Amino acid sequence: MTESQSTSFSHQADPLKRARLRWRARRGLLENDIIVERFFNRYEESLSDADVASLSALFDLSDNELMDLLLARKELDGELATPPVQRVLDLLRTV
Questions:
Q1: Which residues contact 91 (CB under 8 A, 6 or more apart)?
Q2: What's the chain's average pLDDT?
Q3: Residue 92 near residue 36 (C-beta atoms within 8 A)
Q4: Distances from the Cα of 15 to the Cαs of 25, 32, 37, 38, 77, in angstroms?
């Protein structure tokens, strides 16, 4: 392993980063928790760093805003309306 590889772990290579993301994913609404947990069970092993960044952006939303997006009661807008965030949202909606 080169020095640059040892100092800059991606989400997938760093168990601590993965644990932090799962902790941050915990929501106040049970419905959100269920969807996010199913998402992690299905996709966590294949998430790219771009996917993790998109998830983090979604986790910055309030529980109600996230629920509206997950249930397709509203669509992405503003700074969140990017192809990477839409891709992750689409995956979340499939679980």
A1: 39, 43
A2: 85
A3: yes
A4: 15, 23, 17, 19, 32
